[in-house]
């Protein structure tokens, strides 16, 4: 049993589903999804909010590559569970 709350495959899956559910008929590349998720977590660093979703962290930008790998696992699981459909185009996931 995993007792972690932050930075889990499940947590990233939920945020990715929220991102994908917003604009109807819009497609995202994997990199667009990961970047949008990262910015939403550290929105204060980008001047979009007064607080970061995961709190203050001096190493926030160094987390990007680890989050990208975790997001890749999350997307694979969402596909296996038929929650994300792969669109075969140059424009990314649907």
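-> sequence recovered:
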């Amino acid at each position: 049993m995993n007792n972690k709350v932050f930075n889990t495959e499940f947590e990233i899956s939920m945020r990715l589903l929220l991102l994908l559910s917003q604009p109807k008929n819009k497609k995202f590349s994997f990199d667009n999804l990961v970047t949008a998720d990262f910015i939403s977590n550290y929105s204060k660093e980008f001047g979009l909010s007064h607080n970061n979703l995961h709190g203050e962290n001096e190493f926030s930008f160094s987390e990007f590559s680890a989050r990208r790998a975790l997001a890749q696992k999350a997307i694979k699981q969402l596909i296996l569970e038929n929650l994300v459909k792969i669109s075969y185009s140059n424009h990314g996931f649907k």
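The longest helix spans residues 64-80.
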